[in-house]
Write the structure tokens for this entry.
Amino acid sequence: MSKALEGVKILDMTHVQSGPTCTQLLAWFGADVIKVERPGVGDATRGQLQDIPNVDSLYFTMLNSNKRSLTLNTKSDEGKAIFTKLIEHCDVMVENFAPGALDRMGFNWERIQEINPRMIYASVKGFGPGPYEGCKVYENVAQCTGGAASTTGEIDSVPLVTGAQIGDSGTGLHLALGIVTALFHRSHSGKGQRVTCAMQDGVLNLCRVKLRDQQRLEHGPLTEYPQYPNGTFGEATPRAGNASGGGQPGWIVKCKGWETDPDAYIYVITQAAAFDGLAKAIGHEDWLEDPDWNTPKARLPRLEEMFDEIEKWTKTKSKFEVMDILNPLNVPCGPILSMKELAEEPSLRETGTIVEVDHPERGKYLTVGNPVKLSDSPADVDRSPLLGEHTDEILKEIGLSVAEIESSKSAGAV
Ligand code: COA
């Protein structure tokens, strides 16, 4: 079995999270990812949030698996000459510097095309063309400017950011799709192209149901939102607590032990097709004959009361007991799983979604493996590289002699 992207060479100029997520995904699929880092410094995340002193942080190691590291000062003359060779050698260049950084080094899109017309040049930026295109952006800025924060949180409370890194990792995923699409296009056009993804756009794409609701709002209240029927709606899609974003009402309810366990909760969706079984399970057979309860429309004004009744029952059981009872009844539901529970879940270890990796300096650590499984192409997870671990080997591959490598080193270019 061969790896799906075997033979594709990626010049990885990414740092922090959004770009590294993209190139890690391509590396898992078998691309040769050459991570270019500043000599002696490297990706800033190597040293951020360190749990073990002077050892690459989990922040870095969990975003840079399966890559090779080359140190190179792309601002020095020798460094620029080597960088030019790397552009000739690779199929794809990926970067997520602040706007204009690569242009300032002398490598704008026109120059890159001159060096290698087959090169696919992919970038993450905070914003697309417009008033904010020159701004630096981190995860939570993207969540706030892409529509996620204004639509997340409790009703009548402050906007909230989510733990899921939809701005960084989400945009990295979008970019990876753009890259493989451009590679496919190149296979018949013979030409590279520019691929860009703005974090604001990536977040907005993930929030499209909220733009749906914005337009529905012009035609009346959003009947599945907790504000209906007694609260008020303003001009924009409001925050909706834990209400389901779809046409089937859902909510998070307490389970046995919630007083002391912060994760003793379950999400229950009262899908119309499974409502009879759910009503019977919680001891509300009476709802089935009652016109106030026995249709989805009749239940809409009483969703709060309905979830209170469901919660009276779930509070008598653990979240896993609730799953065991409701799943055979086809009621969609899911326990709130803590990171500890996920890390220890045997089925996630078996599928390679949670992987234990060995690192020469930190020892064993857990990482999230490739969530996308291909039936014929393995995606094994290897450790992240040490800073500059593959410098000599990569420089030899692009044609530098031992003497040239030594002279680049003494000039401080690598
Ligand atoms: N050799 C020489 N110089 C290098 C280098 C190398 N190998 N790698 C990076 N540099 C330089 C850059 O050219 C830049 O120099 P310049 O400012 O003189 O042009 C400098 O290092 C810093 O890069 P920058 O991207 O500005 O880093 P930052 O730490 O100031 O900003 C971000 C970090 C994430 C805010 C910014 O990169 C950004 O907005 N990126 C786009 C959006 C994004 O991806 N954000 C999410 C990150 S998870």
